[in-house]
Amino acid sequence: MTANQTTALDLAKTFVEALEMRDADLIAPHLADDVVEVIPYSNTGKTEPWFVFNGKAEVVSYLNTIAGNFSRVSLLNQRYSVTDDGTAVFLQAEGDLVQAGSDAPYRNVYVFKFEIRDGQITHVDEYANPIAFAVLTGLPLG
Question: Which residues have C-beta within 8 Å of that of residue 65, sequence separation ≥ 6?
Answer without folding.
Answer: none
